[in-house]
Each structure stands twice: as structure tokens, then as C-alpha cells.
Write a structure and sequence with these properties.
Number of domains: 2
Number of helices: 2
Number of strands: 16
Radius of gyration: 24 Å
Shape: globular
Order of helices and strands: HEEEEEHEEEEEEEEEEE
Strand content: 25-35%
Strand order of the largest sheet: 4-1-7-8
Largest sheet: 4 strands, mixed
């Protein structure tokens, strides 16, 4: 048999295999991640630039939280549950150099650790402390396992606070712009989260003081939220949207002259990082009837 005939027969045979494979194809292939947890990452380091958070043990179920500025809070992402190897890198302040494989980025490793995530559980990882040598506390990760057992009705919201500010080792939080009476959450330790407090829908501002003091170190109003734009969407969580769960993060001031204060950081524009701050983040996407105004 001539070489050309052999080649044609081979091609025909290959096409038959492809055709057979296509004939049994039942639709798009969706990767099964197996048991998953839900994880978000918060950059609360006040003396460095952006950070990259990566799972480095496997490709499947390993989202990348990339180039987060000081005071950035990522969304929750699905992560393969179990014991996971994590590394956090410093991002080169020269944006044009922030490319995959850039040795100036990947060699500046902040964290190399292993954390364990339970399936069907939400987690917040807060990167706290100082990156500069000799400063205390040194930068490290705080893993907060979410407790969502609070019952929140359609006319209520759940609010809480996470203290990511080493400058406030123990924080009192008041659900008012001016502290008075007993705090809503008392003596939240640095790196700790309060439980959710259930309250009626309506505007709410958290003011933060050092425990036992009435001098406000930081304050911030919760977002209003919004009903779903269509029947196929969820509501945007906020104080006006029943069923919302909201967290107020207490951030420290940026260190003067550090990369955290660079003009490229949208969270620190016009000197907004010179004092501690309270930044709110929704923790869920509450469902609302499409007829709700």
C-alpha cells in the first residue's frame, strides 16, 4: 500500500474516533470541585502595597485573589475544602512589572502556610500586622470561621464587626455616630470578630473607640443596599434590605510614607488613610420578591 493511502486511512480512522466521541457527547463539561468552602481575603497591612493571595497545592478549586490594595476586601470564592497550602506575595509597586513569573514579585513572600477549610462553610482571611522589619505585630493571617446561625427575618438585618487594627488592641463598637451607654459590641480583640447582632432594617453607623473610652477612633455608615434589578438577580445587601448580613471592618491608619499611601491606592486617595477607618462589606446576597420597591 502506498504511503499516501496509509495516511488517508489513518486520517479516516482518526475522524471515526472523533465522530464516535462527539456522538456520545451530552453537553458541556463542568469540573466537579468536590466538597467546597467559601473564602474571602482582606488586605489589612498598613505599610505595604498590593498583595497576591494564592493556593499553591492544586489547580482545581484554587481561586486567585490578585493585587489587593490596603483595605481591599475580596468577594467570597468557592475553594476546595480540606487542608490547603497558601502563599501570599508582595506586588511590585511598578504596575507594568506585575506579570506572571516576575521574579521581583514572587520572591517577596509574606506568608507560606497551611490552613484547613471545612466544606459548606464560609471563611474570612484577614491579613493583619506590619510588613516592615521590627514592627509589631508582624504581618500574619487571621482565619475567621463564619457563624451564620443568627436568624434574620425579612424585616431585619444582621451586623457585626471585625477588628483588623493593631492600633486598637481592644475595640468597643457603638451602633451610633456618637458613643453613649453600653457598646453594641464590647472589647473586640485585635484579629477577632464579634457575633452578628440582629436589628430592624434602617440606617446604621458604627463608631469605634478603644475599650472603655468614648473618643471615636473611626466611624462608618453601612450601605443602604438595593432590591434586585430583575427576577433573575439577588438583592444588594444593605441596611434597607431585610435578610442582609453585614460586616464592619475596623482598619488601622496607613503608615506615613509607606507604599500603602501611594496615590494608586483608591482606598487612600486624598489622605483618607491617615486615620483608622470603618469599611462595610455585605456577607450575603439576600433574596427579595421582585415586587419589592
Amino acid at each position: 500500500m502506498k504511503l499516501r493511502q496509509i495516511a488517508l486511512l489513518g486520517a479516516a480512522s482518526a475522524m471515526g474516533v472523533v465522530a464516535a466521541a462527539c456522538s456520545s457527547d451530552t453537553g458541556p463539561h463542568v469540573t466537579n470541585l468536590g466538597p467546597i468552602a467559601y473564602v474571602r481575603y482582606v488586605n489589612a497591612i498598613p505599610d505595604t502595597n498590593q498583595t497576591d493571595f494564592r493556593f499553591v497545592d492544586q489547580l482545581k478549586g484554587s481561586p486567585w485573589y490578585g493585587q489587593l490594595f490596603f483595605r481591599d476586601i475580596s468577594a467570597y470564592q468557592p475553594v476546595s475544602a480540606g487542608s490547603r497550602h497558601i502563599r501570599v506575595f508582595s506586588v511590585d509597586p511598578n504596575a507594568s512589572a506585575n506579570l506572571e513569573g516576575n521574579i521581583n514579585v514572587v520572591s517577596q513572600r509574606f506568608v507560606d502556610t497551611t490552613l484547613t477549610f471545612d466544606a459548606n462553610t464560609y471563611y474570612t482571611i484577614v491579613h493583619v500586622g506590619y510588613a516592615r522589619t521590627g514592627q509589631t505585630p508582624a504581618q500574619h493571617l487571621v482565619l475567621i470561621k463564619e457563624d451564620r446561625s443568627a436568624s434574620v427575618s425579612g424585616t431585619q438585618i444582621g451586623v457585626r464587626a471585625i477588628n483588623a487594627a493593631p492600633t486598637i488592641p481592644s475595640a468597643d463598637v457603638y451602633a451610633a455616630a456618637t458613643p453613649s451607654g453600653s457598646p453594641t459590641f464590647g472589647a473586640i480583640a485585635f484579629g477577632a470578630a464579634s457575633p452578628y447582632q440582629v436589628m430592624s432594617t434602617g440606617s446604621v453607623t458604627f463608631s469605634t473607640t478603644s475599650a472603655g473610652s468614648t473618643t471615636v477612633a473611626a466611624a462608618g455608615a453601612a450601605p443602604a443596599g438595593a432590591p434586585p434589578a430583575s427576577v433573575s438577580q439577588s438583592a444588594l445587601g444593605g441596611y434597607s434590605v431585610g435578610g442582609s448580613l453585614l460586616t464592619a471592618f475596623i482598619f488601622p491608619p496607613a503608615v506615613a510614607g509607606s507604599m500603602a499611601t501611594l496615590s494608586a491606592n483608591p482606598n487612600c486617595s486624598k489622605g483618607a488613610c491617615t486615620t483608622a477607618s470603618v469599611i462595610w462589606m455585605q456577607d450575603n446576597y439576600p433574596d427579595m420578591p421582585s415586587s419589592t420597591p
